[in-house]
Design a protein that fits this description.
Distance between the termini: 28 Å
Structural class: mainly alpha
Number of helices: 11
Number of strands: 0
Largest sheet: none
Order of helices and strands: HHHHHHHHHHH
Helix content: over 70%
Amino acid sequence: MHTIAYFIAGLFAVRFMNYSAEFGSDTMANIMLPVDHWQVAIGLGLQPIRGIIIGLVLLPFKRIILADKGWVKLAVLILGLSYLSTIGPTVGSFDGYIFTKVPLKYHLLGIPETLIYIFLFTSLISFWYKYPWRGVNFMFLIFVGFILLMSLFGVMDSLGLINVK
């Protein structure tokens, strides 16, 4: 569910929030790779590993997450711990606003992507457990396979092995 939500939220951000130009700005180019860099492309393909880590961390809280309105509790938890109150001063975090020289514009830039991700991730988990049908599992598996294929093509394109543009 993480990989699917991450892909959709990232696609939205790149397509509608002009991440290519924003990450190429003088401010962000110092800390972010361009969106067409091979590491960015492979990062998408590595998201299932991150999804496994997230799943293992959330496993002890399974009953709370799957309870009535549990997805809302999970959404608040993810927003609070992974975006607003990170361990370090990352862009968009509470400490990022205070301790970095990054302009406010860039702190605010990630909010729509973050909210889309959180809504999709928690909704997909809720849907997956509410409808434990094999077809749903197969559908999600096909989608993740598509995402992995897109990541592979992105890496190959950014290394000049193929041209998909």
